[in-house]
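Dear Dr. H.,

I hope your travels went smoothly. While you were away I took the liberty of generating a structure for the chain from your last submission, since the lab meeting agenda had it listed for discussion. I wanted you to have the full record in hand beforehand rather than looking at slides cold. The sequence, exactly as received, is reproduced here:
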Amino acid sequence: MVERTREIGADVARRTVLAAQGFADGRPTGAVTRRHLQRVLGRLHLLQLDSVNVAVRAHYMPLFARLGAYPRALVDDAAWSHSSRRPRLLAEYWAHEACLLPVEDWPLLLSGAKRRGWWKYYGPLVEREPQLVADVLAAVKELGPVGAGALDTALGGRSTPRPPGATWWDRSDVKRICEYLFGVGELTTGTRVHFQRLYDLPERVLPAAVLGAPPVDDDEAARRLVRKAVGALGIATEPELRDYYRLGPGRNRRALAELVEAGEVERVGVRGWRRPAFRDPDARVPRHVTGRALLCPFDPLIWERARAERIFGFRYRIEIYVPEPEREFGYYVFPFLLDGRLVARVDLKSDRAAGTLRVKGAFAEEGVDETRVAAELAAELRVMADWLGLDDVVVGERGGLASALDREVRAR
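The corresponding predicted structure, in token form, is as follows:
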């Protein structure tokens, strides 16, 4: 007898995804604490880092989307400081991309479950310069947490000189070695200053319980990571689950098959989806999803653009690298989630010198109630501005929603 795959509707899948990502829960009514931070991290398992700071750093925004205004120092303390009273909760490593992730997940990602990263291309340099590698490690032990530039100076400028006009990717030898050692787990991030990664030894950063834990078999590490991805996404296709931690295709498929066989993941069909899907058996399916949120481009709800389009009917592309005259919506565009639907998008910039959150463009999706969307969006922009310590919200003229949004902003 062949077991039939259960089929569910696309709307059920959408509400499952939103609940898994934390959007079916109300925001805290009182002060946001470390407990709230841990609750969100228990769902998402990671926060993507990105260098763009035109509005706000990417790793702060998913928490704001789910918790509302909160002290950003909660993240800083969890990621880059440690005390016996408030132990470090997060470590940096390459997961989906460069991410903050729970310290206990660091060994899983360093296992053979994950594909070797781009730092493997620095391997020939490491083999060619073993003494420089040893000196880098000794200098970090003495000076850390320390940046690559300061290390290069401390080592007497032994890197190959960078050519005039070198780009960010034209790194010094010391920086390349630091990144290689970071990739293989011999260095980690001790702290960050002005977003610069300062390297340190893992034994001075990570809890002893994490460093002293028995090694995890590669296959078991893969199963754990895939299970986390299923829990975070609620329901997803195999490539989407693979993308969460950037596992290799073969490893991901084997782990997923084993989880299905064990009953830890359910294989389902979603009407309208061309690929089979995999569901968290513990996933909630709320009757309705209410509330609002601004989503940065690196929020896990939308970072896989084809998935966002399939689930929400919302086509979204980041246009940072598109020449300005050719941009459709803007440089750094935030989709707006309202009652479980992506209903609008805004191009945002924090003008810190002027104390202003600038809405350079505002665009509504077809068929939405623009009056209500403008009112809810104006209210959320005001919350965001206050959270960022900005006095004003100023709406520009670009986009079909700009006029209505401007009226709502001015009325507040």
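Two observations you may find useful: The chain has a mean pLDDT of 93. Residues 359 and 395 are 5 Å apart (CA to CA).

With kind regards,
E. W.
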